[in-house]
Amino acid sequence: MSPVMATVDTAVDERAVPEGLADARILIADDDPLCRRLVAGVLRAQKFTNIEFAEGGLSAMEQVRRFRPDLLLLDMQMPDMSGLDVCRQIRAQPDFADAPILVQTATVDRKKMGELFAAGASDFLSKPINPSELIARVVVHLERWNSLRALRDYRERISREVEAARRMQVELLPDPITLQWAARTADLRIASYNRPSSELGGDLWGMLPISNGAFGIFLADFTGHGINAALNTFRLHALIHEYKALHHDPGALLSMLNERLVRLLRIGQFATFMYVVVDHRAGVLKSASAGAPPALLVQGMKGRARLCDSSGFPLGVERGVRYRTSRRKFPLGSLLLLFSDGLSEFPDADGKRIGDDGLLATLDTCGPALTPQEVIDRLCAAAGMTEGSPLPDDTTIVCIDRRAGHRPNDGLRDRATTQPVASSSCGGR
Amino acid sequence: MQIQIDRTSGQIAMSGEFTFTDHIPFKQMVTEIFAAPGKAVVIDLSRLDFIDSAGLGMLLLARDEAKKTHRELILRGPIGQVKRMFTVTKFNTLFKVEE
After folding, report:
1. Contact B56 A293 (CB under 8 A)
2. Which CATH code fits B2-98?
3. Count of CB atoms within 10 A of residue A9's CB?
4. Domain ranges of chain B
5. In degrees rounded to 5, what are phi and psi of residue A297?
6. Where are the domains of chain A?
7. CATH of span A173-427
8. What class has domain A5-153?
9. Which of A111, A168, A385, B68 has its CA 20 to 30 A from that of A100?
10. A182 close to A401: Cβ distance less than 8 angstroms
11. Is some CB atom of chain A closer than 8 A to the CB atom of B31?
12. Distance between CA atoms of A47 and A40, rounded to whole angstroms?
């Protein structure tokens, strides 16, 4: 009696094959027609319907390409090509790198078994075939393969959607042409740095053109990061543009945004917010802050860097808050730097944070020969941030530069650098 | 961040850094402490070195929980960066903060 037939009477596991597996594509590769029939019979008895055959190694390779099986039952000894070679060649195809391959073998030699797994077999079935074992292993491997694929599909879909959202979020940032236009009109230079800690961030900054060359710059930082915070930046962006009439009046704009956000945000969520109107004709800054980190300001050619008080309730915490507008001089030769706490609170290699005072000290070493982009680069370096270093928090920096004596031909540098850093430098003169 | 809870006195002592990653243990702690009977809840911050905006947000959640359960919430002894954050965000006026 052939060893194959010896198994026919063995009791079959009565557990039903889980739903959704019955139409799985199963390829049986065996040179022995009796074996093929037997294995197919066991599978069909368990309602597997989608079964195809290969009579040898070469035809197995061809069937894998054509039939794209979800599971391959592979005989070890076939005349034209060894099962090991079939395994290796299938594994070399990216689509089948993880697909289940069950090898049928009569061997119990441990070394040979090792070779079998090294060649890429997922599991083995010992000959003679035991129907219960066959079904149990087929089911386990199909389920594993299905969940792996489902997870992979899910991950791919989510990452495509997150990528689309990330692109949309980058589009919320000021476009280089508008920025360049504003900088030229106001005869100053603007540079920026924006990098989220994951694909999506809770930081947002923007430029709001007002009139006579004046413009507003805002910088917002929502609690947390990731999708939740990112969605809030879209809300805020829409709200800010809804209140165009308040763009010239920082205190009024913040008070209004706060009223709206208090009603929209869940408890525990808020945004710190800084808004500065730059009026180069009058040589003044008008600003209001909702608990943002202090702005760094150098007033005039001989001025030293100092911190501007930025205390105030964050937006979205308390109803009825009236935010106050502060005025400061901003004559030729001045420089204003806004940043989110991702910069000041970035832990360097030793876990130290540069803090507001450290940034202030670094800014004092930045002479007027540095472009605003170089000022930003130097502050990042001083904080211990390198281009590739992962950020624990979303980080935004905006530098507005009215210092005299900058290089006359250093007009515009395109928004450049690699994603996900959005960095730009625009200037006039 | 480390949290030490004294349920009988309603005292919580926090130390280390209070950031985004502490979300779950802090929320659990808040639920637990306000579920227990008592009057005021005191969070001792004198050994807390650092708080970020997510940490501040969680304090707002605790404040909301206190309001809902008609309990008093007291933040005690913020120092250094935590104290500065309280000043910048005016949290020292939102909460009862004891030096």
Report:
1. no
2. 3.30.750.24
3. 8
4. 2-98
5. -130, 130
6. 5-153, 173-427
7. 3.60.40.10
8. alpha beta
9. A111
10. no
11. no
12. 10
Residue of chain A minimizing CA distance to B20:
A224
At A161, which amino acid appears? E
Q: What integer pLDDT is reported at residue A421 of this predicted model? A: 55
Option in B20, B64, B81 nearest A224 (CB) = B20
**CB A272 to CB B89 under 8 A?**
yes
Q: Residue for token digits 């227990």?
A: B36
Query: How much is the ipTM here?
Result: 0.93
CA distance B10 to B14: 13
pLDDT at A425: 65
* DSSP summary character for residue A347: B
Burial A185-214 (b: 16+ CB within 10 A, else e): ebebbbbbbbbbbbbbbbbbbbbbebeebb
The Cβ-side half-sphere exposure at A372, using a 13 Å CA radius, reads 31
Q: CA A22, A23, A28, A32: dihedral to nearest 10 degrees?
A: 70
In chain A (429 residues long), the average pLDDT of successive 10-residue segments reads 45 66 94 94 94 95 95 92 92 92 86 90 91 94 94 94 94 93 93 91 95 95 88 97 97 98 95 97 97 96 92 97 97 96 92 94 93 96 90 93 60 40 58
Residue carrying the six token digits 């070779």: A115
Biggest CA-to-CA distance, chain A: 104
- Rounded (to 5) percent helix, strand, coil in chain A: 35, 20, 40
B58 touches chain A (CB under 8 A): yes
Residue with tokens 């979205």: A316
The whole-number pLDDT of residue A5 equals 45
For residue B20, give the DSSP letter: G
CA–CA–CA angle A289, A295, A301 (5° rounding): 135
Q: Please answer yes or no on whether B53 and A224 come within 8 Å at the CB atom.
A: yes
Residue A272 in contact with partner chain B when CB distance is under 8 A: yes
State the DSSP code for A417: S
C-alpha span between A353 and A346 (Å, rounded) = 6
Place of tokens 């943002």: A292
- Does A225 reach chain B within 8 Å, measured CB to CB? yes
First to last CA, chain A: 97
For A268, the closest of B58, B81, B89 (CB atoms) is B58
CA A352 from centroid of its chain's CA atoms: 26
